[in-house]
Specification:
globular, mainly alpha, Probable membrane transporter protein, single chain, about 260 residues, cell membrane
Length: about 260
């Protein structure tokens, strides 16, 4: 990231602010809704996946701390009390092995091929949001397949969240959904970051000195957006996101294939 132009740094800053907003507002999608734009600016998948992974660890902890101090003191609960632990353990038991296989795939696949895979997956997800037909798991076997696929894709590119969320929304109360997912992401990303460090991948931690403040701005806006979304489920919001992702991914796929 040392040889970028000034406008690329500016665009990356805005994109990480967007990442913070989406991650906190929806409880997922910090990578899914960010990677297409980052790869258009600078096509280095592993670099940006590692940066997003570290930020997810930081901001998931920050969200729990802020939730604890947000209510009146008499109503405060332990930071992790809003987590559906029984179903979290069930999801982990299914996704953990595919997750590890996916991390290995990330370390062995060529960067250009990884970009094509990422853009292709995001195009599919974007279309489901545009037509307001998000993924749905219909029975126990489909749920297992979704969780395994989500774990593998999460291992390779951190964008398997919609498959996992499609299952989680059927079993976890809305008020517990974001915090439960944050704990799941924290565990899965910790595994991913550990493997990256063990494999000698540079996490580019110095860049967080300027990227974390950018993401923090989006994080604070996302907290407000989350409260609003809990009360007002807006299909238009997701369609706008879907159209933006589709446009970015279409351009990215064209560039990667040429």
């Amino acid at each position: 990231m040392l040889d970028l132009m000034w406008y690329q740094y500016a665009l990356i800053s805005v994109t990480f602010a967007w990442s913070g907003f989406v991650r906190t507002g929806l409880g997922f999608g910090g990578a899914l809704f960010t990677l297409p734009f980052l790869l258009l600016i600078d096509n280095q998948p592993i670099v940006y996946l590692s940066l997003i992974a570290v930020q997810l660890l930081f901001f998931s902890v920050l969200t729990f701390v802020q939730n604890y101090y947000k209510p009146p003191k008499a109503e405060r609960q332990p930071p992790l009390s809003n987590v559906d632990w029984p179903y979290l353990r069930k999801m982990l038991s299914i996704v953990i092995v595919p997750k590890l296989i996916g991390v290995f795939g990330l370390l062995t696949l060529p960067g250009n091929l990884m970009s094509i895979i990422i853009f292709g997956i995001v195009v599919f997800y974007a279309c489901t949001y545009i037509v307001n037909r998000p993924l749905r798991a219909t029975n126990r076997w489909v749920e297992t397949v979704f969780l395994m696929m989500g774990g593998y894709i999460s291992g390779t590119s951190l964008i398997g969240a919609p498959l996992i969320v499609a299952v989680a929304t059927r079993h976890i109360a809305t008020k517990q959904l974001r915090d439960t997912l944050f704990v799941l992401w924290f565990i899965l990303v910790t595994i991913k970051v550990s493997v990256l460090i063990y494999s000698g991948v540079d996490l580019h931690l110095i860049n967080h000195l300027w990227l974390v403040p950018c993401a923090f701005v989006g994080h604070m806006l996302g907290l407000r957006a989350h409260d609003w979304l809990i009360q007002n489920q807006s299909g238009a919001f997701y369609r706008v996101i879907g159209c933006s992702l589709l446009a970015a991914s279409a351009v990215g796929l064209t560039q990667a294939l040429l």
